[in-house]
């Protein structure tokens, strides 16, 4: 799966995905939640429309029922005078010229109006001139009579306070469909006749056509017997068409026929038609039953009217919401791009800081006081701090470079002096070896002199001569020992100077180590950008540690050399004093030999003492020889340490050069 790595690409993809998800969410919510509710609301609206049609029809029928009840009540109270009936009833039946009333009248029982009169009805019918005209046809003896008609026989047992509506029928002359409202009336508690009003169904057709279009469909009406009171575009015939017959002609109405069997008062039955032949689309049929008449009002609504509102609402919401959301997302995207551009500029400066290509006075412009402005301010502060730190490192590196140069010169001088000391120590060792040999020879000669002192004066004089020569050698030895003492003292002083230089080197290495540690800390704070500098700082710290370790080792050697030098000086001083003493003794011996030639026995004894002193001198010279060898070894070590110190100073100089070059980079 492809996922963008850059935030700008993710922002673009997120905006598009959010727009698509919003559209899908709106469509899903409207389809799953909104459309059912809108359909329910539409269904409720359809039911309200149907109920409104039923109520309006009921009001019309109620007015007809009221007129009929008035006729019945009038028949109960009017005197049985034909003229009075003929004058009183027409105006009531006409109901101020109500053309929906086809006719009406009073239909007395036999012998109830006039004794011996079987048929004595008062009936008015509306003619072609829309005026009511009295008709006596139903009273003709040759006629079938009205007492056996269903509207009359049914009224015999019905309530006197409620209209009994007949089945729909068609007038034989006008071919107009109509229904009759029949109300019985009583005289002295006995059924006396029926009052009727005939209602035309033409206006019912107009009414249903007008109100059926409210739902973009149509309406139809059936009476309680299943006769069609109105159905759009049905052919007129001499007799009323029954709904079952219409189903035979229009099979797509079969579900409605089935639903009619489930109808009842105060219950709305709905049935769906997959293909309404009149609307040429799927439709929803709602059936309403009128309480008083038992008529069924059918309201047909296209399915598109039921669900179309939901789809239209969904489309309107998407049409409004998606462009608005697109505009908002575009604004957010532009803001994000601007923000990312500032972040990229900040990133470039940080990268420049890491690569060392940033100038000394380059700073980010702070144009907004928000998180981006704070970030740029922090970057500028960090850059300034880093520049100051690099300048400080450069200054310290120059100091280290200067000190390293001084140390290099000092180490070279120290190496030269150490080499000179080594050579002089070698010469001193050779001289002491020679002195030791001479001392041994003096001891041997002294013993020989003591042995032969009594044998010959010549031998004594020879011994005197040899004593004089020994005195000269001892004086020379004393001078050499004095010189060696001076050299060793000078070596001790030089060792102290080297120790002072080493203290300077230690201080420099400690300061370098501290600077490297601070540089490593700052590099760690810089993160990945300071990783290279951290490596350099670590190398500097390592070299500083090695310098300090070498300085400590040299310091230890110098301390040992100083201790050995002090011992050598003490031994040389002791040897010098003994040499001086030997010179004095030799001079005394010479004087004694000059003055006491005759006392040879005493000379012999003194010769033995001289031999003993010579042996002691030989031991001392042997010790001095060993000390000179050790001094020579220490001098060689000093020479090596001086060479190592010179190498270390060169490394420190190179390190300072690298630090300066790093800051320049």
UniProtKB/TrEMBL annotation:
Residues 396-632 form the Methyl-accepting transducer domain. Pfam families: dCache_1 (PF02743), MCPsignal (PF00015). SMART domains: HAMP, MA. GO terms for cellular component: plasma membrane. GO terms for molecular function: transmembrane signaling receptor activity. One of its GO terms (biological process) is chemotaxis. Belongs to the methyl-accepting chemotaxis (MCP) protein family. This is Methyl-accepting chemotaxis protein. The lineage of its organism: Bacteria, Pseudomonadati, Pseudomonadota, Gammaproteobacteria, Alteromonadales.
């Amino acid at each position: 799966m492809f996922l963008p790595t850059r935030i700008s690409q993710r922002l673009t993809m997120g905006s598009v995905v959010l727009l698509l998800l919003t559209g899908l969410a709106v469509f899903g919510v409207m389809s799953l939640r909104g459309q059912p509710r809108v359909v329910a609301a539409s269904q409720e609206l359809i039911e309200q429309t149907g109920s409104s049609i039923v109520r309006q029809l009921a009001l019309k029928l109620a007015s007809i029922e009221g007129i009929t009840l008035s006729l019945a009540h009038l028949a109960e109270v009017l005197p049985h005078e034909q003229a009075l009936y003929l004058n009183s009833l027409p105006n009531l039946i006409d109901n101020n010229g109500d053309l929906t009333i086809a006719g009406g009248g009073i239909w007395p029982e036999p012998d109830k109006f006039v004794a011996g009169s079987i048929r004595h009805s008062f009936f008015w019918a509306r003619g072609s001139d829309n005026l009511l005209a009295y008709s006596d046809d139903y009273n003709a003896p040759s006629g079938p009579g009205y007492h056996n008609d269903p509207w009359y026989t049914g009224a015999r047992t019905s309530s006197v306070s409620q209209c009994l509506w007949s089945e729909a029928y068609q007038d034989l002359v006008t071919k107009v469909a109509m229904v009759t409202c029949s109300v019985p009336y009583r005289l002295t508690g006995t059924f006396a006749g029926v009052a009727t009003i005939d209602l035309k169904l033409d206006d019912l057709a107009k009414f249903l056509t007008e109100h059926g279009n409210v739902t973009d469909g149509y309406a139809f009406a059936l009476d309680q017997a299943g006769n069609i009171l109105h159905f759009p575009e049905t052919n007129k015939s001499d007799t009323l068409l029954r709904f079952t017959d219409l189903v035979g002609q229009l099979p797509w109405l079969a579900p409605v026929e089935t639903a009619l069997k489930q109808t009842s008062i105060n219950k709305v039955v709905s049935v769906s038609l997959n293909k309404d032949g009149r609307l040429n689309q799927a439709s929803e049929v709602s059936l309403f039953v009128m309480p008083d008449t038992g008529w069924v009002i059918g309201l047909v609504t296209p399915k598109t009217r039921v669900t179309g509102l939901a789809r239209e609402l969904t489309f309107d919401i998407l049409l409004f919401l998606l462009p608005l959301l697109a505009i908002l997302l575009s604004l957010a995207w532009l803001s994000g791009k601007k923000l990312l551009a500032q972040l990229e500029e900040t990133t470039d400066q940080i990268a420049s800081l890491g690569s060392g290509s940033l100038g000394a006075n380059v700073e980010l412009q702070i144009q907004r006081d928000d998180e981006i402005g704070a970030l740029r301010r922090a970057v500028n502060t960090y850059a300034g701090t880093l520049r100051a730190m690099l300048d400080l490192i450069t200054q310290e590196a120059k100091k280290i470079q200067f000190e390293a140069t001084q140390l290099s010169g000092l180490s070279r001088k120290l190496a030269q002096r150490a080499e000179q000391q080594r050579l002089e120590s070698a010469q001193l060792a050779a001289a002491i070896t020679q002195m030791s040999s001479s001392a041994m020879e003096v001891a041997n000669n002294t013993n020989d002199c003591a042995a032969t002192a009594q044998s010959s004066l010549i031998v004594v004089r020879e011994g005197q001569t040899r004593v004089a020569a020994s005195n000269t050698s001892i004086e020379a030895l004393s001078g050499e020992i004095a010189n060696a003492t001076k050299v060793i003292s000078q070596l001790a002083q030089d060792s102290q100077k080297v120790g002072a230089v080493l203290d300077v080197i230690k201080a420099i290495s400690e300061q370098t180590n501290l600077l490297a540690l601070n540089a490593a800390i700052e590099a760690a704070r810089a993160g990945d950008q300071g990783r290279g500098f951290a490596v350099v700082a670590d190398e500097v710290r390592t070299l500083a540690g090695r310098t300090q370790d070498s300085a400590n080792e040299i310091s230890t050697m110098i301390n040992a050399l100083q201790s050995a030098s002090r011992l050598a000086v003490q031994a040389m001083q002791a040897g010098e004093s003994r040499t001086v003493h030997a010179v004095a003794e030799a001079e005394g011996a010479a004087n004694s030999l000059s003055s006491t030639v005759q006392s040879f026995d005493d000379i012999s004894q003194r010769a033995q003492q001289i031999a003993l002193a010579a042996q002691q001198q030989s031991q001392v010279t042997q010790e001095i020889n060993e000390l000179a060898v050790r001094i020579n070894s220490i001098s060689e070590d000093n020479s090596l340490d001086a060479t190592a110190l010179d190498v270390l100073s060169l490394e420190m100089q190179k390190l300072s050069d690298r630090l300066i070059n790093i800051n320049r980079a």
